[in-house]
Write a structure and sequence with these properties.
331 residues; alpha/beta; Rossmann fold; Arc Repressor Mutant, subunit A; 2 domains; seven-stranded mixed beta sheet; DJ-1/PfpI; transcription regulation
Length: 331
């Protein structure tokens, strides 16, 4: 297994997935390490990250290229240094060459930009950090960007959303390699949810609210989040913002990249997910409280965005006892 890094990568994009992957050894029969990992960079030795903490590369791109041995998994880290990395011919040449001998290829966060730069994502489904999804779409129009996915598998290429989503992807790799039971134990050990491909939305209505600059739109976003079960029609929201419906809808989309109706549904879905994870309240009652009006409407929203029903979501992400979601301690 090869992890590619570079200056100003995000340290969690490097160590997060590796901690999950290497954690599998605690739950497998004694024997060879499940994953032999080599960190590679332009030169062996310390590589700075955005946190100021350095990671150590065991080999240079040139040394790793000369090895010519098969690679089980090629992982490309992400971070603030990505845009500089895609201008580095040595890095791009190494990834291009290594990909030809890798069983599977993985990007963490903005590492997807590197895969896209060398054409590996052309015509493929992929994702990246939510902030970078529009950039990935614009810069590489042949990539089929899935903005709401925590991670995406398309053939032998896996891409993940930002930062901790790389750990979710790594957990899915463990499950693919060693089965559900081992992956579940690794998840519990790392105090993680047991994630599934395409099962969770990375999209957060709160994240959108945090980036709105127009005071009227920002106030509207906060109003929606504070009471998603209210009557939140465009007419009512525009009147609250003291704008015409047309101006309100235009400004809203400029600020958020979404229509008002899409944002309202995202906020309601988020509120419903929290209720399903943390309470024993009935589906119909949650649907009414969060503005879906009926359990059937909420079910359709969950199917559209999450790929599973509200009931399946509760079964998957709520603890088997008590009202709190699973937060297992290492055992």
């Amino acid at each position: 297994m090869v992890m590619v890094t570079y200056p100003d990568a995000h340290i969690l994009d490097v160590v997060g997935p590796l901690e999950v992957l290497t954690g599998a050894k605690f739950f497998l029969p004694r024997g060879p390490e499940p994953y032999e990992i080599t960190v590679v960079a332009a030169e062996p030795g310390p590589v700075s990250t955005t946190s100021g903490i350095a990671v150590t590369a065991q080999a240079s791109f040139d040394e790793a290229s000369r090895a010519e041995t098969p690679i089980d998994t090629l992982i490309i880290s992400g971070g603030h240094g990505t845009m500089a990395a895609i201008e580095d011919p040595a890095l791009l040449d190494f990834v291009r060459q290594a990909a030809t001998r890798a069983r599977r290829i993985v990007s963490i966060c903005t590492g997807a930009m590197i895969l896209a730069e060398i054409g590996l994502l052309n015509g493929r489904r992929a994702t990246t950090h939510w902030w970078w999804c529009p950039i990935l779409e614009t810069r590489y129009p042949s990539v089929l960007v899935e903005r709401d996915a925590i991670f995406v598998q398309d053939g032998n290429i896996w891409t993940s959303a930002g930062v901790t989503a790389g750990m979710d992807l790594a957990l899915a790799l463990v499950e693919s390699d060693f089965g559900h039971d081992i992956a579940l134990q690794v998840a519990r050990y790392n105090v993680m949810y047991m994630m599934r491909p395409g099962g969770q939305s990375q999209f957060s209505a709160h994240l959108v609210a945090d980036r709105a600059e127009d005071p009227a739109i920002n106030a509207t976003l906060r109003h929606i989040l504070s009471d998603p079960g209210a009557a939140l029609t465009v007419t009512a929201l525009a009147a609250r913002a003291c704008l015409s419906e047309r101006t309100f809808a235009r400004r809203f989309r400029e600020e958020t990249g979404m229509t008002p109706a899409a944002y309202v549904e995202a906020a309601r879905l988020q509120a419903a997910r929290v209720a399903l994870e943390t309470t024993g309240t009935g589906i119909e009652q949650i649907a009414r409280k969060t503005g879906f009006q009926s359990g059937e409407r909420m079910r359709r929203a969950f199917q559209r965005h999450m790929g599973i029903s509200a009931t399946e979501y509760r079964d998957r992400f709520r603890g088997s006892t008590g009202d709190a979601p699973i937060r297992a301690s290492p055992a």
